[in-house]
Structures are given as C-alpha cells and as structure tokens.
DNA sequence: GAACGGCAG
DNA sequence: ACTACTGCCGTTC
C-alpha cells in the first residue's frame, strides 16, 4: 500500500496498546521468542565444521529427493476476492463507496476496504485502534449470511472451471485448471482473465488470481497484483526458481510472524532461496518435517494433487467476555459453551473422548487442560460435567475467555473406531443384526466432515480466511450469535457456503468443513434422529429435495439439474431408505436409539459413497465438490 | 499415548 | 480496552 505512513501507523498502534494487559502479554511472548532465538544461536555456534559438513550432506540428499517430487504437470489457479466482506457491504450499501470503511467492531476488524487501508487500518486490528488511525472510519457489523450468499455466487463461477475446486474460505479458492486449458486450448492467463470477468459480472465483486504449477505458489501469485489483478507463473522450473529466489519467506503460507522472525534472527534468512543456502543449519536445528517444509519453500514446491478427503479432528467453541473471577458466572459461561458445543456435535453426529478446556486469564495467558475419558461423549451434561471439573481445578482465577474442545472422535483414525470398547459393542450388536452390514471404517469416516487441506508439509500450507472473524461485541455477554447464524445458514443457503470459522471453510455449521461432509452429516441426523415424518416428507417433496437445485437436502450429494436420471434414482434411494428404516424399526423395536442411529448412518453414508463413485466413473467430469474449510463465524 | 503450549491462517 | 476456530508440531512425561 503506498501512501501509508508506516512509521506513523506503528507509532499510533504502539501508543494505543502500550501498557495494556494485551501488550504486556505480547512482550512476554516476545521475550520467550528472544530466548528461543538465543538458544538456537547457541546451538549454531556449537556446530563444528564436521557437524556442518555432515548436515550439509544430509540436507543435500533430502533436497534432491524433494526436487525429484517436483510436478510441473498441473496448472493451479488461486482466486482471492478483494476485501471481500467490505466489498459485499459496499455492494449492498453503495453510499459506502469511496469512504474508509471496516467490517467488524470496536474490538476487532475483519476486513477493511482499500480507502481505510490507506490509513493503515487492517484486518485483525482492533477497531478502537483503527478509529484512532482514521477517525472518520465507518464501521459495519459483520453479516455472514450476506458473505455466504455472495460466496456461493462466486463458487458457481469457479465450478465451471473446476468442478472439484477447493474452497479455502468464503473468499478464496484453488482451482486445478489444467483440464480447462487443455480442452479449450487456451492459456492460463486467458482463463484467469475470463474467470475474473465472470466473477465480476455475476457478483459485482472484483477478485485477484494467481496461476502457478502448485497451490503454494498460486497463492503467492494471487497476492502480487491485488486488487483486481492477476499474475501467471509458468510451469517451468527456471521460472519458478527465479520467482522464488528473491521472494521474502513471509509471503509463503505457513510462515508467519514468529517463524519469519526466528529464521531471520538466527540464520539471516530473508528470502526463499536462502532456505537452501542455510540448509545445513536448518537440518541441524529443526525436525525433519520442518526442514522438509523449509526446503520445499526454497525449491518452490507445493501441492499439486487434488484434494484428498480429510476428517475433522476436533470441534470447539470459545467466548471472550469481560474478565471475571466470579465462579458462578464462569460456570454459567461454561454451561452455555457446553450447550452450544453439544448442539454442534449432535448436528454432525460426533462423539469424542478427549475434552479440552481453554482459559485465557485476564493477563492474556492461555491455558488448556484436557482429559481423555473412557467413553465417548457428546451430550451437554457429559461435556459440562467434565468441563466443570477441569475448571474447578483452576479456580480461583480471573478469566476473560473460556473455550471447550472435543477431539479423539470415534472412528477417528480411519478404522481405529473398533479399538474402543463402546464401539466394539455397537459393532457387535449391529453385526448380529445383519452380518452383511459393514460398520465403521471408511464409512463412518465419510460421514464426517471431511475436508481437505492442503496442509502438509509441516508448517502447513492451508489457507484460511484472511479476514478474521469478528467476535461480535466480543467482550460481553454476547455468546449467542455465533451459533445462531450458523444453523440458519445451513438451512437457508444449503450450499457451499460455509460458515466456518477456521479458515479453511465450512458449510454451515460450525467451522470449517467441507460442504459435502457437512451435508452428509446433517442429513444423516435428520433421518436417524428426527421424527420419522420429517425425513419422509422431505423425500416425497421432490421440489424440496434439491437445495438450490443442486444439492440433496438429505444427504448433501451434489447433482446438477442435468443429471435427471441420477436424480430420480437418488430420490428413490432416499425413499427406499426411509421405508427400510421404518421396517427395521418395527423389527427392532427395542433397539436402543443410539444403536439404530449408528446403523442408519452407516448405511446411508455407504450408499452416498457408492453413488458418488458410480457417478464419477460414468461422468468423468463430474465430482462432488470437496471443500475444505473456511472459518468464519 | 496423553497433555500442553505455540504457531499459523 | 485485542476474536473464533481448527490443525499440526514439538516437547515432556
């Protein structure tokens, strides 16, 4: 951003925060990092020439191995909407045009428009500081429904170029445009141009694009000519190496403030190519996974594969409020969180056995306390009971945030489900009912939120929404809005939108997940947990079955309107499923509800999977969209 | 394997 | 008067 007086901005930010609890905590963290840097330096100094030559050899070998994995056969495009939330708000209120504006609140800004950025106002900056930087700044509260709606519009465009595109958040996506380029015999630059034009025509919003041989690079590229621009990095090794050589490491997804600081302070690394120059030191001081990532950065390597399915590993929620030591109040907050979390988990049919309590003290110190239970839980009572015990052990304490997380899901480690006692029971039970029925394993898996992430090489390469979410009147009693809009979102938009939170995307529910997965879950729950009539009605009502004329409201499978036969078959399937279920409940009347749910879930999921596989074989070009996640909320 | 802290987006 | 959520890594026991 030119025109920004960086010194002035820094000074104001410093003056506004200096002396605050937050600031003191930042200083504490800085001190810790400084210590870490000193330790690393010491270790470096201890390295002998012999050590270094040894590590150099190891590093060289590893770099060669990584180089051998280079794949220049794919063309990836990363799209990034420009100041997305702010742009959407301006669309719905044109009087904002040209004025400095920020989406968010006094506590936290999610996105600032370009006029505001001229003043140094940025995403993730608290509103009160932003106002100091720009007194006439207009604040607009976040409205995720709106962003989800526009996000869906953009995704309709993306889908035309890559039906299997990866949504990284509401405003970012990765598209493998290799095939389109081939089929239409045009180059990637033209595709990018055309795509951006289409997005603008269909949404009124501008975006930027980056094209490169892998996702890591594509992401970097989309930032180069932002806003409303694009940059193409050809699939050529020399071009990549030249591009990467002078690139500051901070531009790379996965290298944040701290890593940048450490690498610079200890090794003098500023650019990507220096990752290779200092390879022996890195090799000596960091783990294999970390050095692999660093070397990959130096080589300009990134992921080129199509999204693999991934499972959600945890689900959580947290709230900030004005710090208090009042135990009654704290328990009440805890109860609300347990309530919301349980609801979210049930929406997705999740049960987990590790519960983690997160506390942020009034001095911003973060603590987590966890327990792993002998059985899987998901009910509000179970969560609350164990959470209360964890909390109790920490009191008295002045707290400003409480969070709860459940992880270690059943069916976690693909198939690992059977290793748990309770599951064995269920498995056995179901098996006894129908020997043919296969439980758990990948099936269960699919029913989870799956996403894919690009994560990977260690410090990951995923993306999340760059616009932090506004905590919504953060500091106060407001703990509800979060979930509220989420559930609405799910029902109304029924699409890819996700509402997430973590960055890598979501559909409607909580945070981050792939849409497909989410829907499947939702549907599963509908069928198994709701009164029979509901499921049945939905099945019968063909017009209601296809959300946005595209996605099945029951299981989330995505079938475009042109798939007429498949659609018919699909609705028949749900009907049959329904009937079968009714029949079954008659037979196994005494079956416990929970067991029946499991059973039902598995069967449905299975069907969905095989259906999808069938489709992809038949129609090579069509595959359900996998999402990844987004986080927002 | 579990717990915890931290980074990143 | 500095968010919400998720994933992964490293360390320690």
TrEMBL record:
Residues 460-484, 584-618 are annotated as: Disordered. Residues 76-256 form the UmuC domain. It is found in: Nucleus. Pfam families: IMS, IMS_C, zf_UBZ. Gene3D superfamilies: 1.10.150.810, 3.30.70.270, 3.40.1170.60, DNA polymerase, Y-family, little finger domain (3.30.1490.100). Its main location: nucleus. CDD domains: PolY_Pol_IV_kappa. SUPFAM superfamilies: DNA/RNA polymerases (SSF56672), Lesion bypass DNA polymerase (Y-family), little finger domain (SSF100879). This is DNA polymerase kappa. It comes from Stylosanthes scabra.
């Amino acid at each position: 951003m030119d025109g920004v007086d960086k010194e002035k901005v820094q000074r104001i930010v410093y003056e506004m925060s200096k002396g605050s609890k937050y600031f003191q905590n930042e200083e504490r963290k800085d001190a810790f990092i400084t210590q870490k840097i000193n330790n690393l330096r010491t270790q470096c100094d201890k390295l002998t020439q012999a050590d270094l030559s040894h590590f150099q050899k190891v590093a060289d070998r590893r770099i060669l191995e990584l180089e051998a994995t280079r794949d220049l056969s794919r063309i990836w495009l990363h799209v990034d909407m420009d100041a997305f939330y702010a742009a959407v708000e301006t669309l719905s209120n044109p009087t904002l045009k040209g004025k400095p504006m920020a989406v968010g609140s006094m506590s936290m800004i999610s996105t600032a428009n370009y006029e505001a950025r001229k003043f140094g106002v940025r995403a993730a900056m608290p509103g009160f500081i932003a106002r100091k930087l720009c007194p006439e700044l207009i604040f607009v509260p976040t409205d995720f429904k709106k962003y989800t709606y526009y996000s869906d519009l953009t995704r309709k465009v993306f889908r035309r170029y890559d039906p299997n595109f990866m949504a990284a958040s509401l405003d970012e996506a990765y598209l493998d445009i290799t095939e389109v380029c081939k089929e239409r015999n045009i180059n990637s630059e033209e595709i990018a141009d055309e795509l951006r034009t289409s997005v603008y025509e269909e949404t009124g919003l501008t975006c930027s694009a980056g094209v490169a041989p892998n996702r890591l690079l594509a992401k970097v590229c989309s930032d180069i000519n932002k806003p409303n621009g694009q940059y193409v990095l050809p699939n050529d090794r020399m071009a990549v190496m030249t591009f990467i050589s002078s690139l500051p490491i901070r531009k790379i997804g996965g290298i944040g403030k701290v890593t940048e600081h450490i690498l610079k302070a200890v090794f003098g690394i500023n650019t990507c190519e220096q990752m290779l120059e200092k390879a022996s030191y890195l090799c000596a001081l960091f783990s294999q996974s970390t050095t692999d990532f660093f070397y990959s950065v130096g080589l300009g390597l990134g992921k080129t594969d199509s999204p693999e399915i991934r499972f959600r590993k945890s689900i959580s929620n947290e709230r900030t409020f004005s710090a208090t030591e009042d135990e009654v109040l704290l328990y009440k907050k805890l109860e609300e969180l347990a309530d919301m979390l349980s609801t979210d988990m049930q929406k997705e049919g999740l049960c987990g056995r590790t519960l983690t309590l997160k506390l942020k003290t009034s001095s911003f110190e973060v603590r987590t306390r966890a327990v792993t239970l002998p059985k899987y839980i998901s009910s509000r009572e179970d969560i609350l009971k164990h959470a209360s015990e964890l909390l109790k052990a920490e009191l008295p304490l002045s707290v400003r945030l409480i969070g709860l997380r459940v992880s270690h899901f059943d069916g976690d480690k693909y198939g690992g489900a059977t290793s748990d006692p309770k599951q064995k029971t269920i498995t056995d039970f179901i098996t006894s009912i129908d020997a043919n029925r296969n439980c758990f394993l990948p099936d269960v898996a699919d029913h989870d939120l799956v996403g894919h992430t690009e994560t990977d090489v260690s410090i990951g390469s995923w993306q999340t929404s760059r616009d932090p979410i506004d905590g919504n009147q953060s500091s106060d009693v407001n703990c509800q809005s979060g979930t509220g809009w989420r559930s609405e979102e799910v029902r109304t938009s029924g699409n890819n939108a996700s509402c997430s939170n973590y960055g890598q995307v979501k559909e409607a529910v909580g945070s981050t997940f792939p849409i497909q997965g989410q829907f499947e879950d939702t549907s599963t729950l509908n069928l198994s947990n709701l009164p029979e009539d509901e499921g049945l009605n939905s099945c019968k009502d063909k017009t209601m079955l296809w959300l946005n004329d595209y996605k099945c409201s029951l299981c989330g499978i995505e079938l475009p309107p042109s798939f007429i036969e498949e659609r018919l078959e699909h609705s028949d399937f749900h009907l049959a499923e329904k009937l079968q279920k009714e029949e079954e409940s008659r037979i196994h009347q005494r079956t416990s509800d929970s067991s029946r749910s499991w059973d039902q879930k598995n069967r449905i999921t299975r069907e969905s999977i095989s259906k999808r596989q069938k489709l992809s074989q038949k129609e090579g070009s069509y595959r359900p969209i996998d999402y990844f996640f987004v986080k927002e909320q």
